[in-house]
Amino acid sequence: MRVKLLSLILFVMFGTSVSAQRANPSVLQQWDDRVMIDLANSRTPGETGFMRFISNTNQYVDIGVPVGLLAGGVIGHDMQMRQNALYVASSSAISGVLTMAIKHIVKRPRPFVQNINIVPVYRAGGYSFPSGHSSSSFTTATSLSIAYPKWYVIAPSFLWAGTVAYSRMYLGVHYPTDVATGTLLGAGTAVSMSFMKK
């Protein structure tokens, strides 16, 4: 049942995003480009430094959360915490595999490659669609919030994930549609894997 749910979520997200781009590429692409150019034109040194920092926290938090839960579960002899560590880690792993698979199927160029008027803060490699940072941060935030449904877990988790996702557009390395799809993919993966939590 969970696998079918995940397949349905992926079909709706992936199919809708790609078909929308193919059905009317000029409208969607123009909107994506306009947002990216507006963001680039409004950058400030302070904001840029903060956005780079937040973007760089992604890999550390994504690894640190399940490792921290596992360590806490082992030290405190807490089976529930160890199981939740497995849930968060498994959700992240599946989200990562799905993100990379979609990137290699769609092969959407980075914004600054597709439009020379979009100036990035730095030149990221690989493909653009969907945003890996967005999918992984929202997988972590969603799975952690499902495992520990308290406001003091949910609020900071999603604030961090949302800021990471926004930073990818701000830095000029992902379109809004990349980020939106990555966000849905990450959250959807965590929800579909929630049967693993204790």
From TrEMBL:
Keyword hit for Signal: yes
Signal peptide annotation: 1-22
Residue ranges the record marks as coiled coil: none
Keywords: Cell membrane, Hydrolase, Membrane, Signal, Transmembrane, Transmembrane helix
Membrane topology: Multi-pass membrane protein
Residues in Phosphatidic acid phosphatase type 2/haloperoxidase domain copies: 84-194
Main location: membrane
Database matches in InterPro entries: PAP2/HPO, PAP2/HPO_sf
Location within or outside the cell: Cell membrane
Record's keyword annotation contains DNA-binding: no
Highest taxon of source: Bacteria
GO molecular function terms listed in the Swiss-Prot or TrEMBL record: hydrolase activity
A single Gene Ontology CC term: plasma membrane
Transmembrane stretches, start-end: none
PANTHER family per the UniProt record, alphabetical: DECAPRENYLPHOSPHORYL-5-PHOSPHORIBOSE PHOSPHATASE RV3807C-RELATED, SPHINGOSINE-1-PHOSPHATE PHOSPHOHYDROLASE
Name of this protein: Phosphatase PAP2 family protein
Naturally occurring in which organism (per UniProt): Mucilaginibacter mali
Source organism phylogeny: Bacteria, Pseudomonadati, Bacteroidota, Sphingobacteriia, Sphingobacteriales
